[in-house]
Fold this protein.
Amino acid sequence: MTDTQLTREEWLAKTPRRSPEFEQARFAKDTPRAHQLSIEEINPYNSHLFREDRWQEHFARLRAEDPVHFNELGSAGRYWSITTWDDVREIEGDWKRFSSANGITLSPPIGTPVPEDALPFTSFITMDPPDQTDQRKTVRGVSAPSNLRTIEDMIRNRTIELLESLPEGETFDWVDTVSVELTTLMLATLFDFPMEDRRKLTRWSDLVTTVPDPDSTDPFLTREESRAELIECVEYFDGLFEERRKNPGFDLVSMLAHGEPTKDMKPMEHLGNLVLLIVGGNDTTRNTMSGSIYALNKWPDQFEKLKADPSLISNFVPEVIRWQTPLAYMRRTANHDVEFRGKQIKKDDQVLLWYISANRDEAMFGDDAEKLVIDRPNADRHLSFGHGVHFCMGARIAELQLRILWEEILPRFERIDVQGDPEWTLSSFVHGYAHLPVQVTRKK
């Protein structure tokens, strides 16, 4: 019997260390439309819904019919989907009942044996106060208003240089040429990382956030190969840590190397915080940069409105962050049995806070919540950056990069036309773009 002929149970037994998301990707072909399913059958975690950009109808049904929704998956156990704005915000702010300490993505149930060669991914986002607060303080200076003022001119100059280099009348990939390049340059600056190696940061980010497509004809990394590349990440940064211990600067590596809660960590213990900072500074901004182009192509009247009144950029930025929602969810774990909205959540149940659904909640954003509306009056109420103790530390940097990008796009380009359907990532965690073909038309 070949691998493709194995039953689901046989395949899981053969590959017991695969993540729940990989399991979903392997067996979620030909997924039904939301209206074809009973409410009990809806599973918004299905990564194919995001690859096919069909998640909207599933969440709309859950918000309307079952906003605190139960599922159970063989490799993850019991989990709940929280889908309305009010409920996501309430649980996000209640770290005493709903903990981050057991991970932020859907995972095998608590108590599942961990492979001996598993890499540590503990970071301050997978902690609760006071430990979370102490480690977060170590690096939060990078997003202080004084530092934003320091880096603004640098971001603008890099953005101008890149936009001036774009080919006119030729189709190119906006994701790689613009979004990845600008965010990777920014991330390398925040780490004071060697610029010639900056694409390593993108690679390491993709390793931990992108699910390999098991049905693809292209080879994908084995668990061992992924582990080897992440160990390369640890070893590379270990050299930077050693250097910054002797010659500190105002960068994330120096902050971790000299911060009281983090300075004595061993190289492998730094991996979780490094991955957190790489992903937080890379995936979220780059996917919103791509999403802004795609959204203004879907609603060209909004692009015309923006061109007619560039002062709307300040409201467009939070609106496109709301509409895109670059991280679809965050997980919490129930610390004890909890009754929530009439549902009985048991101790150790996983709870998925679906930002991507909360940001489309009609009760908060109106009947046009699925659309991009650049002058939406409450766009800044979005939950894309979370809420409470885990509010995204880099939110202001992301907003700054997006604002500058559009302040420099509008005077240069009459049009940026999408040339074909985007290719979305196969992930229910990172809501992102793999490719977005575009052509630009410069102003005369």
In short: The chain has a mean pLDDT of 85. The chain has one domain: 3-442. The domain at 3-442 is CATH 1.10.630.10 (Cytochrome p450). Residues 306 and 374 are 8 Å apart (CA to CA).
